[in-house]
Amino acid sequence: MSDWLATLIAPENRFLWRAALLCVLLGVSASMLGCVLVVRRLSLMGDALAHSLLPGVGIAWLMVGTSLPALLVGGLTAGLVTAMASGLISRLTRVKEDAAFAALFITLFGLGVALVSKAGTPIDLLHFLFGNILAVGPQDLWLAAGVSTLTITIFAVFYRSILLECFDPAYHRASGGRSTVTHLGLLALVVLNLVAALHALGGVLALGLFMLPAVTAYLWCDRWGRMLAFAAIYAVSGALIGLWVSVQAGLASGPAMVLVLGAGFAVSCVIGPRHGLLRWFLRPVHHHQEESEEHCEVPGHRH
Amino acid sequence: MPTDALRFDDVTVCYGPTPAVHHLSAELPCGSLVALMGPNGAGKSTLLRTILGWHRLTTGSITIGGVPCRKASRRIGYLPQRTAVDWDFPVTVRDVVAMGRYQVLGPFRGFRTEDHAAVDAAITEMGLEWLADRQIAALSGGQQQRTFLARAVASGADIFLLDEPFAGLDPSSSADLVRRLQTWAKAGRLVVTVVHDLDLARRYFPQALLVRASLIAAGPTAEVLNPRNLTRAYGASYASERSMVAVPKPAPAPALGLSLKDPRVKPMARKAAP
Fold first, then answer.
1. A174-189 pLDDT, tens per residue?
2. Å from A69 to nearest chain B CA?
3. Closest by alpha carbon to A47, among A59, A39, A56, A38?
4. Which of A80, A95, A239, A265 is the most exposed place for a label (fewest CB within 10 A)?
5. Distance (Å) from the C-alpha of residue A241 to the closest C-alpha of chain B?
6. Domains of chain B
């Protein structure tokens, strides 16, 4: 135990503290955005966004070389272009938003792969694609701190608008809210958080910090505020445990975190009190619809 | 002072090349219970959503008590179609009703004592006290409907727009809803409801508005739903189908809904019991 502590405190392991701090910062903000994606049924859109960051990072790398700000600006631009363009396409044409996202992200991902393969794959570019927590520097931490603070502030200030936009966009608009602005603003926050998590976790694995806490919280919570809080706490603790596992087992940090968070989700699927699998076995179904159907059984009655 | 009424003046709404609502004029005074009727695609929902300000008017104006309806949006309570709601969303009945106050408070101001009181009063008025802390998927169809009506009440609205509230409700829930709407109309509120069931409209709704892009008729339900207007709204094929249905119906039709169900159930029951 004391050995383990000594290792942690050792100055050569300062990277671990940086990594842990990054997990705490982004765990809170990314998981809250994940909640929005889960309840709006846009979970796969996060995936599309993550993939579409690739060409931005690739182009920036070709133009500037290995420069953290340049690579992040590249990824940010590509992500925002995808998010805004598909938002516009879905509002102006017949194409629905998920299809617009799919069309754009796969094209952009193709472009990204083409660029990366043409340029060869230097190791520091790979860090951006697949993540390396060892590579987290002070710049990453500042970025994460800024993005996280911005996200949490926006969630606190616009709590009602976000809740209305997620639950009932029609009512939000009818009661004088700015539905489109809220929607695009949330998408922009998703891109910002993805970019901030890019270096540590890699674009695609960073999504684990968004989706897994949110979908786990969805199994446990019946109120929006509690779902946000549950997701944030779960994300931070899961990511820290994942980090510890990765150090102990010598695994890459991104996959280790995602696996820990995913394991918690799997367990919740089974034991979730009201929405998990076990509830089917623990007590008789008492949902009103089944109930009313059982009570008014009519021979040969069909709807 | 202009009469307190929802007034359409020469309203045309277009999206795409053909107008969904075409030069429609009508006046619905407060204190009435109005069935908004017409075939699918007649522009009923469009008309409701235009009042809410979702669609731009191509011509004409909509006013509430002489005020443009955009400025009177707080007076309007809207009940969405049931299919438009995600019932698994993590909110309780009380959370949904509290959303009605967001409109009054704006996005930032905190809940005051009177806001909590308004939420409680709306929950009580709709008879939802014992369900207030339930998640909304754990309610019956009628209770879900009442939750959204309570949200409209909590916002202080006195003009209610209901888009197909009877879809998927069983006869007793429908009757319960109709009674509540009648009480509201008597209390001076205006209730405009999209209704598809002609019998329901005839029985419970004193006023009707029949549309097919343009206005076909407005006024007392019995006059509006005469065969000539119905043929104009629903087409000649509808009128002939209607007469075929009417023949096997027993002459003294008792309670609504049940009378339609009974003849179907009886022969089945006979078969089952030898």
1. 777 788 888 888 988 9
2. 35
3. A38
4. A95
5. 28
6. 5-272 (3.40.50.300)
